[in-house]
Amino acid sequence: MGKAAGKGGAAGGKGNGSGAPQRSRAGGGASAARPVPPAPPRPAAGPSAPVTPGRIGLYVLLLVTGVLVAVAGTLVQAAWFPGGLLLALAAAAGLFHGGATATGTLAGALIPGAGWLVAVFILLSQVRPEGDFLFGAGTSSYLFLAGGLAVAVICATVAQRRAVGVPHGRVGG
């Protein structure tokens, strides 16, 4: 066979006496290969995150903030149509993403989203005897409702992928 197939059966590989090839390390010289210790497991940030009084307080604060952002967005989105609508949706997105980032859980995005959704639907259904209500029957109101729901779903999906540990990068390569 010649010198191309060394003792370990691989071209140019060093043998360790057992017949299996041994990889050389960059700059390793003649030192023996040391096993690499496994990386410590990341703490689970999903549904198994510990429930503490501080975390419950943070969730209550996020719920109340979701209601306040919904009320403010309801008033702003109709006042300055294109800019007010974008400002209201950006505030909702900031709250949902910030809640997920602050808690490190999926609930951090869902709880303020639930507060926002309940507040918007309560404000949407309240009609005064005079016929006045906060939402007009225009495009802006529907865009605010649909856009807020879409932003909540997007932020919850991103938080869920982060909690599960899905690696960032391209799909398929």
TrEMBL record:
Keywords: Membrane, Transmembrane, Transmembrane helix. Residues 35-44 have a biased composition (Pro residues). Residues 1-48 are annotated as: Disordered. InterPro entries: DUF6113. The chain crosses the membrane at residues 56-73, 79-99, 106-127, 133-159. Pfam families: DUF6113. Residues 1-18 have a biased composition (Gly residues). This is Integral membrane protein. It comes from Streptomyces natalensis ATCC 27448.
